[in-house]
Write a structure and sequence with these properties.
Layout (H helix, E strand, L loop, with lengths): L1 E4 L2 E4 L12 E4 L4 E9 L6 E7 L6 E5 H4 L17 E3 L4
Antiparallel strand pairs: 1-2, 3-4, 3-7, 4-5, 5-6
Length: 92
């Protein structure tokens, strides 16, 4: 899967493609997640991101594609330095 961000194409490996190599995303509030897959809503055919927390009980979440990849509302969260709601965690 690829997304375009800041005029660059970024390759993302989902959990279904490879559990061990799945791309880790950091939420702007600090927790880490892996995208399981991109799914379509049967009602409106809009894309949804199905993702899993990499903490505690590994709960699975769903969010619209637009929301997952949107920028942080810096008016609501002025002290957050992260640009996007979810950003790829830098590899060490």
């Amino acid at each position: 899967m690829e997304i375009e961000r800041d005029n660059q194409k970024i390759k993302i490996i989902t959990y279904l493609e490879s559990k061990e190599k799945a791309t880790i995303f950091k939420h702007f509030k600090g927790k880490e997640y892996k995208i399981i897959t991109i799914a379509k809503d049967s009602e409106d055919l809009k894309e949804k991101v199905v993702y899993r927390g990499e903490y505690d009980d590994n709960q699975v979440w769903i969010r619209s594609y637009e929301d997952f990849f949107q920028e942080v509302d810096h008016n609501k969260y002025p002290n957050i330095k992260q640009k996007y709601r979810f950003e790829i965690k830098e590899k060490i």
